[in-house]
Write a structure and sequence with these properties.
The complex is a heterodimer.
Chain A lengths: L2 H5 L2 E7 L1 H7 L3 E6 L4 H9 L12 E4 L2 E3 L10 E5 L6
Parallel strand pairs in A: 1-5
Antiparallel strand pairs in A: 1-2, 3-4, 3-5
Chain B lengths: L3 E4 L5 H6 L8 E8 L3 E2 L2 E10 L1 H19 L3 E7 L1 E4 L3 E9 L2 H18 L2 E7 L4 E5 L10 H4 L7 H10 L10 H4 L5 H9 L2 E5 L5 H11 L3 E5 L24 H12 L4 E5 L8 H6 L3 E4 L4 H14 L2 E8 L2 E7 L8 H4 L12 H4 L4 H18 L9 E6 L4 E6 L4 H4 L2 H9 L10 E2 L4 H6 L3 E4 L3 H6 L7 E2 L2 H6 L10 E4 L4 H12 L5 E4 L2 H8 L1
Parallel strand pairs in B: 1-5, 10-11, 10-13, 11-12, 13-14, 18-22, 19-20, 19-21, 21-22
Antiparallel strand pairs in B: 2-7, 3-4, 4-6, 4-8, 5-7, 8-9, 14-15, 15-16, 16-17
Helix pairs in contact in B: 2-3, 5-9, 8-9, 8-14, 11-16
Classes of the chains: A alpha+beta, B alpha/beta.
Chain lengths: 88, 528
């Protein structure tokens, strides 16, 4: 990825569920980010929200598909961070 | 010939009766419902009836026709008033003519009971004190058949409950699946399919209650119920088929009794145990479809692996506060399974369950209902089944997400099935995972390095009282090599849940020297 691409602010939509929604205090937000991957985006959001779970305990979905943490982010992507849920 | 109609003018019983005259009939029975001057302790001045006319007439016709067929009577007619009625006015009239009196009485009774239950007709009572209120007509009909359920029964033997329901009614009604067999996707063939089906429901709690209720109602032939827990009062806000008087009794037994009361045609198999690696194989193999209604990851992963091994479809659901997830894992080893979706490090204790995080009662109700729905869709081979997807619904906003998933590399190579095979080996008596100390200083004296798994913000808010190594849980799990495996390590967090989860995880990766501080810092603070 070129240095220019790195500096571009991309608008993405982020959705949170369960514990993350609670810790973020919201169920979704629009973010303009320089993050290139979901992992970078999550680290960026961690500086704003008191997330206790690291990415290795979460799953990420991009545009309604489970995705790899290193998948390149594109402008307009919808990113969902999913913590595991077990209640019954 | 018209069999049911609505009238906004006063009824003429004599004329109505005459319309049923028939030379082949030796018996005639009629029922008149009158407006009375009191209801539930309040004095009633007058009434108003309002009907959803199209639907009421269609359903009314159906009720009368059903009764004619069922009891073999010659003719029957029912008329219901609408509009304003005074005390003593005739509100509903039913007449039946038949060859003999017995079927005339029974058909008449059946028609008025069904009319009260099924017709979309609402009653507004105007009270003497000037107040008024709508009363659903369904409430007017005393559900005599259900009377016995209101009594708290302390006897938990389900055979007793079952017999008891049947004994009180000499003409016990038989299960009637007509409302589902009328569906093109069900029919008599589908009903026979359900009757021959066997479904295992693991967990008779918030999810299990609706699953068991709907599958029993639908006439699924055999239901296996696994639950080793006893009913607690704190279960009842979400586990609404139990009674408060039943607290302390086995949930699996209570659930079986309730299923029997709901539908005596269903065979129940009760397993009053938790599902474990030692018993899962034998239990799962006996059923064709498995529904996971548990509240913890270790059982969910166990079920996932064993179901994959036996080629069984598994319907999973989990809830958290106001939201939940639904997933169907296919038994064909081709689609995504639980292990394909969640990281290996997923362990109980990392996020809250219903006990720790709380849950609103209808949330598991919704997700359990969805599980029952998927179970019926699968058994009946209906379209639209969930496949390779995680369905997430936030019930506060009704936001729904469907996340597609694929079988990942490890599972494609058989990781889940291998895990199941390894599960089959009984686990040796586990070494303790937790330890308690009078003080953290005592732990240091005992030779432990204390590892604080809390996040920096938590530590800043409440620093540890002794020297500790700070290593947030996520970092530790990412890089367990950061620990000196040769020396005793005491993992600590706020309440002992994260440290226990991490200890389980690290032990499974071969770190024998890690231990979790029971109750975490909170328990230590309570001691000082």
């Amino acid at each position: 990825m070129s240095p220019e691409a790195n500096s571009i602010l991309r608008p993405v939509r982020v959705q949170y569920f369960a514990l993350l929604r609670e810790q973020a205090g919201r169920s979704d937000e629009a973010v303009d980010t320089r993050a290139r991957t979901p992992r970078e985006l999550y680290e960026e959001l961690r500086s704003r929200h008191p997330f206790t779970l690291g990415p290795d305990l979460l799953r990420v979905a991009v545009n309604s598909e489970f995705a790899a943490w290193e998948q390149p982010l594109r402008a307009g992507d919808t990113v969902i961070f999913l913590p595991p849920v077990a209640g019954g | 010939m018209e069999r049911f109609y609505l009238s906004d003018v006063p009824l003429e019983p004599t004329a109505l009766a005459r319309s049923l005259a028939n030379p082949a009939c030796g018996g005639y029975a009629a029922f008149e419902g009158w407006v009375r001057d009191h209801n539930e302790g309040r004095l009633v001045a007058r009434l108003e009836y309002e009907a959803y006319a199209e639907l009421a007439v269609r359903e009314g016709e159906r009720i009368v026709e059903e009764a004619i067929r069922r009891f073999g009577v010659a003719q029957a007619l029912c008329v219901h008033r609408t509009g304003n009625l005074a005390i003593g006015d005739l509100a509903v009239w039913v007449g039946v003519s038949a060859a003999h009196r017995d079927e005339a009485f029974r058909a008449c009774r059946a028609i008025i009971d069904e009319v009260k239950h099924r017709l979309p007709i609402w009653k507004k009572e105007h009270y003497r004190d000037g107040d008024s209120g709508w009363v659903n007509c369904e409430r007017c009909a005393a559900p005599a058949a259900h009377e016995h359920e209101r009594r708290p029964h302390r006897n938990h033997d389900h055979h007793h409950d079952h017999d008891h329901g049947a004994r009180e009614q000499p003409h016990a009604p038989r299960p009637d699946y007509s409302r589902q067999t009328i569906l093109a996707g069900v029919g008599e063939l589908g009903q026979r399919r359900l009757r021959s089906a066997s479904v295992l429901v693991v967990g008779a709690g918030g999810l299990g209650v609706p699953v068991l209720s709907y599958l029993a109602g639908a006439g699924v032939g055999t239901l296996g119920i696994v639950d080793g827990d006893r009913l607690e009062a704190s279960n009842l806000h979400r586990q609404t088929m139990y009674s408060i008087a039943d607290c302390g009794a086995s949930k699996a037994r209570l659930a079986a009794a309730r299923v029997q009361a709901l539908n005596p045609e269903v065979r129940t198999e009760v397993i009053v145990e938790q599902l474990t690696a030692a018993n899962a194989d034998a239990i799962v193999a006996r059923y064709e479809l498995i529904v996971d209604c548990t509240d913890n990851f270790s059982t969910k992963f166990l079920l996932n692996d064993v179901a994959q091994r036996h080629g069984r479809i598994l319907i999973l659901a989990s809830v958290y506060q106001y939201e939940g997830q639904l997933q169907v894992v296919r038994g064909d080893r081709r689609g995504a399974c639980l292990r394909c979706m969640w990281p290996e490090a997923t362990r109980d204790g990392l996020v809250g369950n219903c006990v720790q995080a709380g849950v609103l009662g209808p949330v598991p109700g919704v997700f359990g209902s969805l599980q029952a729905l998927e179970a019926l869709k699968i058994l009946l081979d209906l379209p639209g089944q969930l496949r390779d997807e995680l369905l997430i619904i936030d019930l506060t906003s009704f936001a729904t997400s469907r996340v597609r998933a694929q079988r990942n590399g490890a599972c494609a190579a058989g990781a889940c099935v291998r895990a199941a095979e390894n599960q089959g080996v009984p686990v040796a008596a586990d070494a303790p995972l937790e330890v308690d100390f009078d003080s953290l200083a005592a732990a240091l004296e005992a030779g432990y390095t204390i590892v604080d798994l809390r996040e920096p913000a938590e530590i800043a808010a409440q620093p540890a009282p002794v020297p500790v190594r700070e290593l947030p849980l996520s970092e530790l799990l990412r890089n367990p090599g950061a620990l000196d495996a040769a020396r005793p390590q005491l993992l600590m967090c706020a309440r002992g849940a994260r440290s226990l989860a991490a200890t389980q995880e690290l032990r499974s990766r071969g770190y024998a020297n890690v231990m979790s501080l029971r109750g975490g810092l909170l328990a230590q603070r309570a001691k000082t």
